[in-house]
Protein 1
Amino acid sequence: MKKKLLYIFLLAILVSSSVAAQDPLVAELVNRVNKDSILATMNVLTGHTSFWYGAGEYKIKSRNSYDDGNKAAGEYIKRKLRNLGYNVYSQKFGVIDGENVYALVNGTELPRIQVMISAHFDSMPDVVAPGADDNASGTAAVLEAARVFKDAKTRYSLVFALWDNEEQGLLGSKYYARLARERGDSLLAVINIDMIGYDANKDGLLEVHTRNYAHSNIVANQVWDANYEYGIGLKPYIIDPGTTRSDHASFWSYNYSAITMMENFTPINGYREFNPYYHSMFDDMNVLNTDYLFKGVRLAVAAFGNIAAVNEITSVEDENEVVPSEFVLKQNYPNPFNPATTINYTIPREGFVSLRVYDILGNEVAELVNEQKSTGSYNISFNAENLSSGIYFYTLETGGKRFTNKMIYMK
Ligand SMILES: [Zn+2]
């Protein structure tokens, strides 16, 4: 009985949010989706850009479950979500050492109810498998959604999930969905993304796969609506009954509402624009239509925001800091200070970062940062309460470079 009531309650929420016109806060988040940021993430996932992993610079050759790059990709995803400020969880499962990564953030009004955006990060075939379309595109979409939602407060809780071992039989998502059902998670909707980068004929067709499980059809309609409400410019096409060959199907198995967004993979009116490099070593960045991909991420963010109900956005975005192009160590603020001040630095590429404070004799008095950091801009606070007044220097070391600024502590 209780279950039945919850079911009806979730239906009511979905229906009420589906009739809304454009929400200005969601529109703001959609506008924050940044193509360069998406491509920067994809370049790491496909091995075009190295990142720090293990003992040094590392390029991912394959994210296949049987290759080292699979673990490296999982680590990269964890780090990226942590650096955005999320609580990150990993979930190990199965005989091939699978590991899902997800971030969870509580909703402000009804945190028991969750809205999920997800994608698998493992790739095919083996050894060399950049998997740009399948599925660095979906993974980058989820990470970009995480970036733009980091300063948003939403009515319901958000889950950003990246599945491992999808190509081995949806193993990661099956594991999560089963546990979710056992725990009694109230998952309002799952928006899964699998291959949204290939559109050589530029028709903008994007499939939304649904079936009559829970309220999946309403979620599919919400994605369809969001395309028009937010002027995304794609041609969404609802496929019902949709494929069972991606991670949304794991949620159908446990009667959750779930859809997958996908490029034109299914024959529609006898025509199918199939990525000819699918599951080959040639599924790489050069075959993608990055404008189509960008629109797909905007659509996912719009639908996700509509369903999660955005109440507030707590920061103004600094466009220059989204995809930084150079190292910056800013002058601390305030300066002179007493007893605390903030130091801002920006790194244009992933790497080991150390930020230390020295007195005028060159003695180290504080270590503020000493860890791996991903591309981005960071604020660090420094409290000098236990030190004496005077001149201090703070030094940033990263990527073989060294920057030093002076600051003045006046009690
Ligand atoms: Zn896939």
Protein 2
Amino acid sequence: MDVGVGVVFGVLVILLYIMTILNYVVKAINRTFGTRMKTNAKAYKAFTNCMRFIVKNHRLFGMASFVFLIIHVFIQYSDYGYISQTGAVAASVLLVQVGLGIYGSKAKKKPKSWLYIHRAVAVLLPLAIAIHVLG
Ligand code: HEM
Ligand code: HEM
């Protein structure tokens, strides 16, 4: 594997993506185990702090992943001289996801389906990234 600076930014996109989906994971853990976790007040406090951090910064993580993507594309394009097709597909999915996220956080009255679509695209994205990185 060629570990150039471009790759570092590609990996950063993936790490930030993981931070964004933790938004779902921490809430699901809270829904399922919240009552049981509350029996240990100290541990539950630590968990809720962590959950708050993840939820509060979700938009920031999503936007940051996109910023790192732009840097990745610039570096890879100047190093390799071509636009990776699988990369372009993954980037399009990420762009749609960030667009959906911005819409969802700005729209006053959004359709109920919005969250389901935003979640579905969150599942699609790692598949597109895997094809680009492993393909
Ligand atoms: C969500 C979008 C993307 C992610 C998460 C991502 C991530 C990565 C990662 C982790 C690598 C290193 C893989 C390895 O060295 O085996 C890589 C390689 C590469 N990426 Fe991306 N990338 C994305 C989009 C793009 C786009 C839009 C381009 C277009 C210029 C691009 C161009 C490349 C190139 C040229 C390489 C090296 C050669 C190759 O594997 O094809 N990437 N990317
Ligand atoms: C890599 C990009 C992103 C991914 C993978 C992603 C993923 C997710 C997931 C899985 C959920 C569901 C959480 C739940 O079930 O409650 C969610 C919720 C949400 N996302 Fe994103 N998201 C991304 C970017 C963004 C961006 C850029 C914004 C806004 C600027 C945004 C705004 C929201 C909002 C408002 C919610 C509703 C729940 C909440 O506020 O926590 N997302 N996102």
